[in-house]
Design a protein that fits this description.
CATH superfamily of the largest domain: Nucleotide-binding domain of ferredoxin-NADP reductase (FNR) module
Bound molecules: flavin-adenine dinucleotide, FE2/S2 (inorganic) cluster
Number of helices: 6
Mean pLDDT: 93
Strand order of the largest sheet: 4-3-7-1-2-6-5
Structural class: alpha+beta
CATH architecture of the largest domain: 3-Layer(aba) Sandwich
Strand content: 25-35%
Radius of gyration: 18 Å
Number of domains: 2
Largest sheet: 7 strands, antiparallel
Distance between the termini: 30 Å
Helix content: 10-25%
CATH class of the largest domain: Alpha Beta
Shape: globular
């Protein structure tokens, strides 16, 4: 894996998603960083110049997609940092530190189920586009905002994507039912399951992984500050199954041991 580097990247454009004047979803297209290589599931710490002195830390974002000329990150406005990012304009400069973390397993010949909740869809854009045998992939996506708020089309052009829009009572139960059935199918064909999304969603996936014994990886979105293992702000507890003897049941940093973990290796609080 290539070493993480820090570079200043120009904003090419910022495109609102969702066709709603008040949308809080954006695709941020930056110049391509000079990284030797990257892996879907890795992330980048972004810190626009406009963060100034009052927001000293960058913010972590999944690498959504990379072309020979640009890198795309996709974000939702949830607080001060992302609100300021939503003001970025072409030509503005963003400091990018990456690629960080480990990324998802890619086994081209294994049937692989991608499970995303909300913004957990982001790393699967790059995954679907770089997988050498996309016919071995399928995806289930649960979301609360309208589908056109997310980069779902970009995935759907490569692989089958089933989406479930949670709008009211019963939708979540339906989603969990479908999730369980799909995980059971992939367990029966010795497949691989990869999941990214909010912690309650990952916990559900983790429970079904244990029930069916299907190999499953989870990408955690713990809050992060430094992104490189120094501040201990992102730790996650490991289980007895953790492969390194002395680390069993000890917390590890999600930023540099993850953010992708095998489901049986971590405890989700
Ligand atoms: C590895 C990784 C990859 C990520 N990829 C993406 C991505 O591709 N797109 C995207 O929109 N977001 C992503 N996130 C989440 C993103 O980093 C946070 O939304 C962002 O840091 C919030 O910054 P803020 O200053 O706007 O919010 P703050 O002002 O810091 O916080 C505002 C609110 O957001 C919540 N929040 C902050 N950080 C997180 C987090 N990590 N997870 C969930 N809630 C959080 C806080 O609890 C608070 O309620 C990722 C996080 C990680 C760790
Ligand atoms: S974010 Fe600082 S140790 Fe992980």
């Amino acid at each position: 894996m290539s070493q993480a580097t820090s570079c200043a990247l120009k904003v090419l454009d910022l495109v609102p998603f969702g066709q709603d004047p008040n949308t809080s979803f954006f695709a941020l297209r930056l110049e391509r960083p000079a990284w030797e290589r990257w892996k879907p599931g890795q992330f980048v710490m972004l810190r626009p110049r406009s963060f100034g002195l009052d927001l000293p830390w960058g913010r972590p974002f999944g690498i959504c997609h990379m072309t020979p000329h640009h890198m795309i990150c996709f974000f939702q406005v949830v607080g001060r940092g992302t609100a300021r990012m939503a003001q970025l304009k072409s030509g503005d400069v963003v400091r990018a530190w990456g690629p960080l973390g480990n990324g998802f397993a890619m086994e081209p010949d294994t049937p692989t189920l991608l499970l995303a909740g909300g913004m957990g869809i982001v790393p699967f854009v790059g995954y679907a586009h770089t997988h050498p045998k996309p016919w071995n992939l399928s995806m289930l996506f649960g979301h609360r905002a309208r589908l056109n708020c997310y980069p779902a089309d970009s995935i759907n052009e490569r692989i089958p994507l089933d989406s479930l829009h949670e709008t009211g009572d019963g939708d979540l139960d339906n989603f969990i039912f479908t999730l369980r059935e799909r995980m059971r199918e992939y367990a029966e064909q010795s497949g691989l399951v990869l999941a990214c999304g909010p912690t309650p969603f990952l916990r559900t996936v983790q429970n079904f992984a244990a029930e069916f014994g299907v190999r499953t990886q989870l990408s955690l979105e713990n809050r992060m500050a430094c992104g490189v293992g120094a501040c201990l702000g992102c730790v996650v507890n490991t289980t007895d199954a953790w492969p390194v003897e002395e680390k069993r049941r000890w917390p590890v940093q999600a930023c540099n041991h993850g953010p992708v973990f095998w489901a049986q290796h971590v405890t989700l609080e």
